[in-house]
Amino acid sequence: MEERKGDCWIHIKDQFDNLEKHTQWGIEFVDRYSKFVKERSEIETSYAKQIRNLSKKYQPKKNSREEEENRYSSCRAFVSTLNELNDYAGQHEVISENLTANIVAELARYLQELKSERKSHFHDGRKAQQQIESSWKTLEACKRKFERDCKEAERAQQHFEKMDADINVTKADVEKARQQAQVRHQMASDSKNEYSAYLQKFNQEQNDHYYSVIPNIFQKIQEMEEKRIERVGDCMKTFADVDRQVLPIVGKCLDGMTKAAESIDAKTDSQLVVESFKSGFEPPGDVDFEDYGQAITRTSSETSLSNPRESKEKPGGKSKGKLWPFIKNKNKPPPAPPTSAPPSPSAVPNDSQSPKQHKEPLSHRLNDFMASKPKMHCLRSLRRGVSGSGPEDFSHLPPEQRRKKLQGKIDELNKDIQKEMDQRDALTKMKDVYVKNPAMGDPASVDPRLGELAQSIEKLQYEVQKFEVRGLAPPSAPRPLSPPLGALTEPSCLTQIKAQAPSANPGPLPTSSTPEFDDEFDEEEALPTIGTCKALYPFEGHNEGTISVAEGEHLFVIEEDKGDGWTRVRRNEDEEGYVPSSYVEVFLESNAKGAMTYI
């Protein structure tokens, strides 16, 4: 340091003001670098916040659709990437925290110390400068006094000599002039001695000032400045080290993203799609050839207008035989569906005639695969208050999907049963404690809750049994819609169950307003299909004009309910008839009036 002082600072001992400006610039530079690091820290914080928000925005929501998507490896990889990205954002927060703690806060404290130290050093320098300037002024005053006294002594000597040479001057005046000259010489001699002594003192002070005091002050300022420069360098190194410290964790985050991407298995995802949408249906068989050319081979006599009844009775072509009973007793309505609430509505008496079943066209078969409109049932909502996304037995789904849904429902119910049993066991233990220690509580206070839990467990177990039975039976098999009355204690539940059965009495069957319709009906073109429907309950059509349907059966709608409670449906080309509107669920085509679209 001594060499550096001799090499650098001794040569600028007269540049005190310039050094003061330079050190002030050094403080401003440290402050500017501190602001730079602070802004970088704020950027890191903002970036981390945006990354976290981005990760949160695309995190899967807790709903059935997202849970379904999570089965695929690509979706799981995306979730893993989002989690790794969240950790990546955390490392940027660490960078921000370390920059603030290790650089910004430290430089703020150091700046205060640096300003205080600099102020002290330059205060000492100014004090030494003022002291040497004061000594110089005192020396100048001594010099001027010595010069003045010398001049006065010289004038007094000249006056004495003049008086001594003048014969006209008395001896007393000459003596007086001589004494005055001597006094002036003594004063000049004293001023000379004083000036000489102070000059030696000033020279010593000046030598000490420029070779000791000021160099020592400059030495301290130099050390202060070097420490400042070293401190800035350390902060710049820390600035880089803060980033370097998180690189291993950032690398792990990136490795996690890469691993997640490599875990994607396209074949497995494709297989999951197959498993998800596998219906279990067998492909439809070959379509039989329907020969419409038989009518062309008839002779002209067979097609004569003189034999209209024989022509109508001929079996070839589209037969309207099933439509004839609609007209015979069109003013006599069939019995209405039952208004009571059995597990499934009882059908009206069935007639003995069973219509001949024909091979269904391919389009009819494909329409059987259509999903039905979800209906809300109350059994699941007795306790949970939630309606499903389809019929309670999932009969609207293909067999394979229905089996999976039923199994999922059974697993969910078993979890609920386990929770209820855990609560029951805990309350039973609490009751035992109360029995052994009555001071802790009344055992009877637990009984109501135990009763509620017992009823809840009984209902849940019944539902499990119900879904297990449904899982073994085909969707159209008869099944109870309500548990035994002993299993239900809430009147509202019974009310909800009864409310499910159709209770409307359909009116008489629609009639024709044209008397001649009976004779011309067979020549009329078949009504177009305006939609489809699904039978919610079995109906055994006994009266004329009705058609028997089985629960779960899909049919074609050819005429909407006109407000009389009946809907006209068609099973195939030869079987048409009316069914109670409350017994079927209708799905109109998109181009039909009041149509609803279902996917």
UniProtKB/TrEMBL annotation:
Keywords: Cell membrane, Coiled coil, Cytoplasm, Endocytosis, Lipid-binding, Membrane, SH3 domain
Compositional bias segments (type: Basic and acidic residues): 357-367
Composition skew (Polar residues), residue ranges: 298-308
GO terms under biological process: endocytosis; signal transduction
Keyword Membrane: yes
Top-level division of the source organism's lineage: Eukaryota
Molecular function terms, GO-annotated: lipid binding
Parts forming coiled coils: 143-180
Record domain SH3: where: 528-589
Domain REM-1 positions: 396-473
Protein name: Formin binding protein 1b
